[in-house]
Amino acid sequence: RLAAPGAAMLRRSLWLCLCLCSCPARGLRIHEYLYFQVLSPGDIRYIFTATPAKDFGGVFNTRYDQIHLVPADPPEACGELNNGVFIQDQIALVERGGCSFLSKTRVIQEHGGRAVIIADNAYDNDSFYIEMIQDSTRRTADIPALFLLGRDGYMIRRSLEQHGLPWAVISIPVNITSIPTYEMMQPPWTFW
């Protein structure tokens, strides 16, 4: 009989194996996920799962080994940002709500951001990915836009606040197929 931590690891490993076999999860296949790892602060040094926007935004042509993930101020990023200077050449963490996903992506692009990660504003969402689609304005965006579960976004922001940090350091994208399952640091609050 397995101890509780071993059983949990086995369940996660089996779930990941099922996902890697291209079984759909909430309408998405594994190749439609993008992964990033928080390197700092250390208490959230996990690999997070995000989904790219369906019909707008760019793709990651470059792997960033250490880039800042800067929470937007204001969090919804529907207009001028108070910390836009810190988003220049970095990746912005934005909260869902207030305007369209495309509008948020364009605001970050206009501030020189390399990409945007939009976290759900439902902080208890730890399993449902929302499909980010084009709005009806016919505008475009060139930078990548990713959707992040609400619980993940909340935990990242909470850690930054607790440590008094203006941003996290991340690596994006991360190729999880090269990481042995037992070494993957997954958020303990999310079931993979």
From TrEMBL:
Query: Any idea what job this protein has?
Result: Plays a role in the modulation of physical activity and adiposity.
InterPro entries attached here? Answer: PA_dom_sf, PA_domain, PRADC1-like_PA
Q: Which UniProt keywords apply?
A: Glycoprotein, Secreted, Signal
The residues covered by the PA domain are 69-153
Q: What is this protein called?
A: Protease-associated domain-containing protein 1
Q: Which SUPFAM superfamilies does the protein's record reference?
A: PA domain
Gene3D superfamilies on file: 3.50.30.30
Annotated GO CC locations: extracellular region
Q: Which domain of life is it from?
A: Eukaryota
* Compartments, as annotated in UniProt: Secreted
| First and last residue of the signal peptide | 1-27
Tell me the CDD domains matching this sequence.
PA_hPAP21_like
